[in-house]
Amino acid sequence: MKDLFRKREFNLFIFILFIIFGVSWRTPSFLYINNFVDILNDTAILSMVAIGQLMIIVTGGIDLSVGSSLALSGMSVALLNQYHPGIPIFMIILISIAIGLLLGSINGLLVSRAKIPPIITTLGTMSIYRGLVFVLCGGTWVSAHEMTEAFRVFPRRSFLGISSLIYLSILIVILFLIFLNLTRTGREIYGVGGNKIASQYVGINLKKIQYIVFTLCGGITGLAGFLWVARYAAAQSETAIGFELQTIAACVIGGVSITGGSGTIIGVVLGAFFMGIVYNALTMINVSPFWQMAIQGFIIIFAIIINTVMDKRNQQLMLRKRSFNE
Amino acid sequence: MNNCIIEMKGIKKYFYGVKALDGVDFKVRTGEVHALIGENGAGKSTLVKILTGVYQPTAGTIILNDKPVQFPSPQVSQKAGISAIHQEATMFPDLSVMENIFMGHHIRNKSNGLLSWREMKDKTQILLDKLELDIRPDTKVKNLSVAQRHMVEIAKALSLNAKVVIMDEPTSALTLREVEYLYKIIRKLKSEGKAIIFISHKFEEVFEIADYFTVLRDGKYIGEGTIADITVDKIVQMVIGRSLAQMYPKLEAEQGNIILKVENLSKIGVFKNISFDLHKGEILGFFGLVGAGRSEVMQTIFGIDTKTSGEVFIDGEKVYIANPSDAMNFGLAYLPEDRQIQGAILAMNIRENITLPIIDRTSRHIFLDRNREFEITDEYGKYIEIKASGWEQLVEDLSGGNQQKVVLAKWIATKPRILIMDEPTKGIDIATKATVHNFISELAKKGIAIILISSELPEILGMSNNVIVMHEGVITAKFTREGANSKKIIRAAIGSISK
Ligand SMILES: Nc1ncnc2c1ncn2[C@@H]1O[C@H](COP(=O)(O)OP(=O)(O)OP(=O)(O)O)[C@@H](O)[C@H]1O
Ligand SMILES: [Mg+2]
């Protein structure tokens, strides 16, 4: 625990509690457990994809194509479901992940082999993938009644009152917590982000690492694509437009250094949760929708400022505690 | 000489419980070169950073021209006439010399308030002329040599009309001639009545250039005095608190078979026809001026750069090394020259840095094993005496010399068969230097073949079995230990070939 809730993550956690407290004071129904389950459901997909984004940002890159990849894999499986309703749901999930892996690996190849900077690569593939969504659906929708029952309800299916969507996101969090913190490749990802040249000198294969993070992010995004269209029971050409910015925001709020080298999964998950809470709270306390976006932006900036200002003080506390222990 | 320009009294600086400075007194007079001496992590750079407003002291007062002052920011300190060349690079590589010099105090046109580049360019030219520097005001800083960059920083100090110029290890990246040139500049500044604070681990330099000294140890003030009244031994005693064992341990290592053979290695425009043999247990010294191409040769052997032609043999077999991990598989290790750029990952802690090259040995299958990592870090970290609050401390927060020790530990921990060391003792204090030299000798004795690149002649002469000298990309001379002396080596290094 002591390592997980370090510095910025801790600040953010406190800040979240603060908001919860403040809002529930005005609107007690905010505190209902159901409301929190709703928020978790709303932020599950964001958390998952933001973890993919985190890995790329840690290596010093960025992925602007996640929104489009999500839409493309979502649209593909929705169409598949529409025209071949017999395909079992777990196959659909695997196909969705596979499409995502493919799209991510294209990004990865362009960045690592063709040496095109990530921001340019993914700016390009963002348009290409989005364009392919249009081509696939011909500008029409796949709507609820065109999907099978099993497809539509999958994210909502619950066990012990918790939806499969939340279980899946917890699974992703745990898998990637292990991957980033306990495996060699995870350490190498942080190494590359911290200092590319020094990493090269110790024999870390930069190309391989870049390829891995883009591909893995693609895989998560692919899974998210299915979950998204199933949850909203609609696949359309505008699905998840602008979503890439939300994933980046979740990372930044969660204390990920945009220049690479540092950032934690717990931070990112809290970042995503924070965004969900703010959105939910603004609706609950009846802020006019016209104002919502502006206020949301304002609170995000405020959170980041608090984070950086309090960072130093917390570090101090941590280190003092550490030197006492020794 | 009682005209104190700066007096620091009872300065304390704690970093989260680490006492970097613990009650230091420090006085500097006008027209004096004041050497600040102490081991790695003694607190020298921290003191400098307090004087330049980078850090705020936890306690203590600063008195400038008999008035107590506070430096809440570097700008304030600069305005007060204090200017520093920091240990770690603080320049903007993509900007021109002129832009770097006037960064933060641009000259504006009086009538329209816009920047007046014309005037800045003229002023820069005057400063460069004064320093007898042959560079143009609009050259980008990244195209300058390390020595030239230092000179540009000095020019910046002059442009600020500094009364106190601080140089934190200015010579660690310079070669003999450049150091001579720096001395000349320092004497010139001194004759103009400026105070110079000079930090260096090399006592020859301190005795050559300084008038006065102050010694720090573990963040505490130990003593001060005039250089003329002290001996090297006494200063060493003050710095490390005991007297020093023999400096360059004599080698008794037995030399075995040829382990590394390089034949006619060339890279167009960088180096040409490099051939040499390296035996087991041998320490092969490479000497040359900055830019002689020594590091480039080694980087090519290690697979970081690609060669144009030539061959490399290990154990008599021709090998193809395409990247550092190939090289490491053949038992090579390369300790790079620049600790901040090529050596350490500053945002990682000491344990993660040291175990990064041996991550396949410390981990079980794909999973990391922190306990093993800790054991290895503890073993090498203690051996090489890294001064830190714990192995989980970020490398970024270590003193310069301790960062170098981390990089050193990291490469030694790979247990290589062939170890290439590029300026291994750069920025390391004398006591540790002796430890490192001892360690190098021990490695050689175990049969490890060592290539030692160094710009310090005593180190090359004291440590090597054989010496190779390079000049502008070619080997100009090879000496055996017996046949080598400083005169011959320097002559070969500046290009007058002697056979
Ligand atoms: N930002 C920081 N955070 C924590 N500890 C620090 C920080 N900066 C310096 N220290 C600690 O303060 C001590 C003094 O460091 P300083 O850089 O002043 O040493 P130095 O005398 O310049 O050494 P060197 O000769 O190696 O450059 C060291 O123990 C170092 O670890
Ligand atoms: Mg220092």
Explain this structure.
Chain A contains 13 helices and four strands. Chain A is mainly α. Chain A has one domain (8-325): ABC transporter involved in vitamin B12 uptake, BtuC. A two-stranded antiparallel sheet of chain A has the order 1-4. A two-stranded antiparallel sheet of chain A has the order 2-3. In chain A, α1 packs parallel to α12, α2 packs parallel to α7 (164-182) and α4 (89-112) packs antiparallel against α10. Chain B has helices at residues 44-51, 74-79, 97-101, 117-130, 146-159, 176-191, 203-209, 232-240, 294-301, 324-329, 339-343, 350-355, 359-362, 370-383, 400-412, 430-445, 457-463, 486-493, and strands spanning 4-15, 18-29, 33-37, 59-64, 67-69, 82-85, 164-168, 195-199, 212-217, 220-226, 258-267, 271-279, 283-287, 309-314, 317-319, 332-335, 418-422, 449-453, 466-471, 474-480. In chain B, strands 6-7-8-3-9-10 form a six-stranded mixed β-sheet, with helices on both faces. Chain B has a six-stranded mixed β-sheet with strand order 16-17-18-13-19-20, sandwiched between helices. A four-stranded antiparallel β-sheet of chain B has the order 2-1-4-5, with helices on one face. In chain B, α4 packs across α5. The radius of gyration of chain B is 24 Å and the shape is globular. Chain B starts with a strand and ends in a 6-residue tail after the last helix. Chains A and B meet through α8, α9 and α13 of A and α10 and α11 of B. The structure holds adenosine-5'-triphosphate and magnesium ion. Magnesium ion binds next to α1 of chain B. Adenosine-5'-triphosphate (ATP) is lined by residues 15, 18, 20, 38, 40-46, 87, 387, 397-402 of chain B.
